[in-house]
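Entry 14. Structure prediction run on the chain below.
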Amino acid sequence: MRAFVGLLLPDAALDALERVQEGLTAGRHVPAENMHLTLAFLDDQPEAVLQRLHQDLAEISAPPVRLSFHGLDTFGGKLPRVLAAQVQKTPELTRLRDRVRTACRSAGIELPRERFRPHVTLGRFPRHLDAGQVDRVARYLAAASGFRFACDAERLALFQSTLAPRGARYDILAEYSLSG
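Output returned:
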């Protein structure tokens, strides 16, 4: 089963992110129900491994995490593939990510070593953007560069990701409260 662990966003954050999406006229918007902040992508895992991970995630004791959104960015180089709202990398967020990755390894999941760039994906672009679309994305980024928002993430989730022609669908397998 294709899965990942991420932070669920409060309704106020989802509303703010949907408002900032409104000016984007290129690509495909990520629906609010799919917005999250990924802490660990697990790829395909057997259900037994995910059950062990569930038990380890349930034992994480951590306080809610402050998320400070500060602008938008694209990933993919000159021909962007993804539009994302950037989130400030704080010690608290990094500690939580490290705890999640430790739980993953404890459950037997090998995770690649990767740089942590906290973000929430807002849009996806086709493989080949024409010059007009690239220009529209650049204008949109300039207009939305001042996007700022802060909130507390109080819930962590284990998600199943199902790929489909119109985009991935994410289903929550388990939720964990951040209140410790």
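The beta strands are 2-8, 28-29, 37-44, 65-75, 82-87, 119-124, 148-153, 155-162, 169-177.
Filed with the rest of this week's runs.
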